[in-house]
């Protein structure tokens, strides 16, 4: 039996009652990722009974969130303080989204919110989960100012040269189900470039369902398809790749399964 790790899912966005059954499949562990300042307590309450789920706390750079970074971070920190430390394995997701936030958005607020997360990650000595879209250079230059912080570039959406830049900063690179999409040749090239000890895989459920489920809501069980394709592209067996990702997840998140 393979034990697939899904390093990034949003379990509270899946239909209620479907999550426990995931562990009857070959799912070895899931990191349930936060996107807003007040969701952590509810997510922990909903899923903590599943002993192979761990949690992150972070704020996605929505228009509302980047309008008031300090206030948002104050709220998030209250939730972090209240959470059982053994269940909280990362800060994020947080970052820059210049597909969503264009020139007239509060880009200074977006940057400030990311930097506040980096401070918290540094202080708590937790890895950070970075969301970055159409903002590779800006993201890299901010992360470079926090060399003590390590983490993952989640749902990687750039090319080989951006992958190299993030690897040089010490970051892991994580690929989601869009790796399997026909148009994603650049992502598949980037996947082959990542060294074994820096690679992670995720679903970003309920988004980005891999082929052949594209268009449906993704569940962590679908990650099997992403592992299969990634193994084929990297000339690896699925078993070996599953071992690699499990070891990398443990190394980054301290999440041993
Ligand atoms: Zn996400």
Textual characterization of the structure:
This protein is of the alpha/beta class. α3 runs parallel beside α4 (107-124). It is globular, with a radius of gyration of 17 Å. It has nine helices and eight strands. It has an eight-stranded parallel sheet with strand order 1-2-3-4-5-6-7-8. Helices cover 38% and strands 17% of the residues. It has one domain: Alpha-Beta Barrel (TIM Barrel). The mean pLDDT is 95. Zinc ion binds at residues 8, 10, 33, 93, 204.
Task: Furnish the topology, listing elements before pairings.
Blueprint: E1 4-9, E2 27-32, H1 40-47, E3 53-57, H2 63-67, H3 69-82, E4 88-97, H4 107-124, E5 128-133, H5 136-143, E6 151-153, H6 160-168, E7 172-175, H7 185-193, E8 199-201, H8 223-233, H9 238-253
Parallel strand pairs: 1-2, 2-3, 3-4, 4-5, 5-6, 6-7, 7-8
Zinc ion (ZN) binds at residues 8, 10, 33, 93, 204.
Give the helix proportion (percent range): 25-40%
What is the 3D shape?
Answer: globular
Sheet having the most strands = 8 strands, parallel
CATH A-level architecture: Alpha-Beta Barrel
Report how far the terminal alpha carbons are from each other. 14 Å
CATH level-four homologous superfamily name:
Metal-dependent hydrolases
Query: What is the topology, as strand order, of the major beta sheet?
Result: 1-2-3-4-5-6-7-8
